[in-house]
Amino acid sequence: MFVRLWMTTELITIGPEQSVVEAQHCMQDNRIRRIPVVDAEGSLVGIVSQRDILNFLPSILDGSSSGASSLAGSTKVGDIMACTPMCVNPLTPLETVAQLMRQHKIGGMPVVDDNGILVGIITESDIFSAFMEVLGAGGDGARIEMIIGKESRALYTVMDIFKRYDIFVQAITVHHDFGENKRLLTIRVRGEELDGMIDALRRSGAQINRIQIGTEPL
Amino acid sequence: MFVRLWMTTELITIGPEQSVVEAQHCMQDNRIRRIPVVDAEGSLVGIVSQRDILNFLPSILDGSSSGASSLAGSTKVGDIMACTPMCVNPLTPLETVAQLMRQHKIGGMPVVDDNGILVGIITESDIFSAFMEVLGAGGDGARIEMIIGKESRALYTVMDIFKRYDIFVQAITVHHDFGENKRLLTIRVRGEELDGMIDALRRSGAQINRIQIGTEPL
Q1: Interface membership of A94 toward B (CB under 8 Å)
Q2: Does the keyword Cell membrane apply (chains A, B) (predicted)?
Q3: In this structure, are residues A139 and A215 in contact, taking their beta carbons and an 8 Å threshold?
Q4: H or E stretch including A110?
Q5: What is the 3-state secondary structure (H, E, C) of chain B?
Q6: Tell me, what DSSP letter sits at residue A6?
Q7: C-alpha triplet A124, B177, A133: angle, nearest 5°
Q8: What's the rounded Cα separation, in Å, for the pair A35 and A112?
Q9: Residues A58-69: what's their mean pLDDT?
Q10: If you measure CA to CA, which chain A residue comes closest to B155?
Q11: Best of B97, B157, B174, B211 to mutate (most A CBs within 10 Å, chain A)
């Protein structure tokens, strides 16, 4: 799971010489909240957000609002953008991006290659999509939550049963902080012999928390 | 992975009879962007967001700002709150919550029990935490990304090797849309014989994309 797989590559960008008003219209027209700023060579030079524009405008509104809009028309994106935005690489792990976004309270980051060329943008929304995928959201088959031990073999016992019943694992995640010596295993599986597999799981001592068949209960 | 494990239970709430100004101060003091509104019995009756307050104020600012603040002081939360907020249950799967938040462009949802009593709140930030956990962010050991086939046995081949080398699986996720007949398996593992295990993986034909030891490269 890394950035390249989830980033948006259909990029909307703006030049540092364009006006703040143009940036504002561009955000409204495209329903986006941030625009990477690139120079003529496609190198990232900054990022301008809805918040940057809002932060810029109020100080101007102290006075007449017509003065504000004329200043917004003449002020350049380069003057109000964040010049050294936090960037990631196409191969940055997704958990690192999630961590950075949370830590710095930012909703999206430009993705640049080793030469500083802008190649994409990754947002909270992309990270949500990735998370839904690894949790198997909307998939068919059975969603099973079960509690297993913290010893390494607990997971192998489950996998051996899946293998025996020729189960296809669509999604699998482990949550470790579930309780003392307990892990929560969430899987979405498909197979001809789901009932037999579930019986075998129960016989093995796995504590099945919940089973949902199909997408209905989601 | 379900809501109860990740929701915030230290709740900040407000009553419908309290003023908009009180709600605004409460958000500022606690650095939050939404407050569930509960009645005297603790039942959820609505939610009020920073946006609701902002949407309320500007219409008032047409005129004198002192009129606006006096009206904000006398207007009750119950008059501007969203009365039928989207809610989830403590046992709702996290992928469903992520899906709802994305679909309806909301940043957080109240969590209510079967009696309509507010028991928590779950936000984008909580979902990010959960995602980081299942991806093994910040864990030690080795983070390995490898490409495996789409046939069900491909995963079992890998698990059998882990089992043989007594590897502890800290995190495991599968990404399916990686390419034709390819899945991307991301794991974080610990063990005494990581080198032997990696050699065995390579001999088995698994295509290892990237290995990171420890947390450094994150």
Answers
A1: yes
A2: no
A3: yes
A4: strand A108-112
A5: CEHHHHCECCCCCECCCCEHHHHHHHHHHHCCCEEEEECCCCEEEEEEEHHHHHHHHHHHHCCCHHHHHHHHHHCEHHHHCECCCCCECCCCEHHHHHHHHHHHCCCEEEEECCCCEEEEEEEHHHHHHHHHHHCCCCCCCEEEEEEEECCCHHHHHHHHHHHHCCCEEEEEEEEEEEECCEEEEEEEEECCCHHHHHHHHHHCCCEEEEEEECCCCC
A6: H
A7: 45
A8: 14
A9: 52
A10: A169
A11: B174
Residue A47 to residue A37: CA distance in whole angstroms: 5
Residue A55 scores a pLDDT above 80: no
Residue in this structure with the two tokens 């984008």, named with its chain if needed: B124
Q: Which of A1, A166, A218 sits opposite B135 (nearest CB)?
A: A1
Q: What's the complex ipTM?
A: 0.77
pLDDT bin (cut points 50, 70, 90) of residue B165 is very high
A68-90 pLDDT per residue, tens: 566 767 889 999 898 888 899 99
Return d(Cα B159, Cα A204) in angstroms, integer: 18
| CA pair distance B143, B212, nearest whole angstrom | 5
Closest CA to B205 of B148, B152, B142: B148
Q: For chain A, list the domains and their CATH numbers.
A: 3-132 (3.10.580.10), 142-213 (3.30.70.260)
Q: Are B146 and B209 in contact (CB under 8 A)?
A: yes
CB distance B90 to B110 below 8 Å: no
**What length does chain B have?**
218
Angle between helices A124-134 and A94-104 (to 10 degrees): 140
Nearest-CA distance from B200 to chain A in Å?
17
What band does A165 get if pLDDT is binned at 50, 70 and 90?
A: very high
Cα A72 → chain centroid: 33
List strand residue ranges (DSSP E) for A139-205, in order: 142-149, 168-179, 182-190
What is the token pair recorded at B61? 């600012």
